[in-house]
Amino acid sequence: MQKVLEVSSGEDLSQFGRLLWQKKISHQIHNVKNSQILTVANNEQAGQAAAYYEQWRQGLIHPDKSDSADFASYFNFGEFLMNFVRAFSRAPLSLIVIIACSVLAFAAPLESMNELVRAMLFPDFSFGTRLINLETVVDNFTYLHFVKMLTPILLHGGLVHLVFNMLWVWEFGRRIEAVQASWLLFVLIIVISFCSNTIQFLYGGSIYFGGMSGVVYGLFGYICLWQFIDPQKMLALPGSLIFFFLLTLFVMTAIDLDFVADEAHIGGLISGAFYGLIAAGISRLRRRVLK
Fold first, then answer.
1. Averaged pLDDT for residues 184-210
2. Which of the listed residues 58, 183, 200, 232 has the most CB atoms within 10 Å of its CB?
3. Domain hosting residue 207, numbered range
4. Which of 11, 41, 73 is the last residue before a domain boundary?
């Protein structure tokens, strides 16, 4: 966001804000102590907003009273579609995952336990008993069992759960797709899903879990190891974000809330970091050999 101007908190910017919406300039007004700070999306809009502000102060321009400038009139579907296509071209797999999880959040909400949810839950390898016999599991293992070991990541319980995970899937997924490849991200998600879900089943003691948070922590761990071992690949995260994620994991694990899949978080982080350790190590070694 670009800062346009800073004025006294006593100045009424409501009509100027209305004017900017009518001019299709997205903006925010922040109240900071005794002042108001106006910010816009980019430098071009900053120049336009500053010019409009001077004209508005001099009474040369006013918002159209007949124009409500509501969200529906401001929203441009064509522009939205173009932005979506651009985003899809840069990070197709990340968007596909987000769309799939969003659709299933309504078709198969985790808390409803409908038939679709039950079909996507982790398989019960105790086969109706309280004990897991490895020989029995191997003898009865099918391709469907493998798929069901992955599908819990697509299930979410509530809008907050969904939105939080999808924001981080986009943030981490697009970084990986920008530097590496979509198919590599796909393999990474499969590996992390398999590991985090299995650890959650073995140590959590139930098949009734779901969500992308284990994968999110796995992608986080993967990027961190690349950043540490092979920084030349430009796959990195800011230090403040790394601190935030590690602190959040520590706090959630310490609190030990019943509805939080701590085992999946830890399993995802470990598996993603281990995958990143191997992949980044091979990348760095290969580059040294080729020199």
1. 92
2. 200
3. 81-290
4. 73
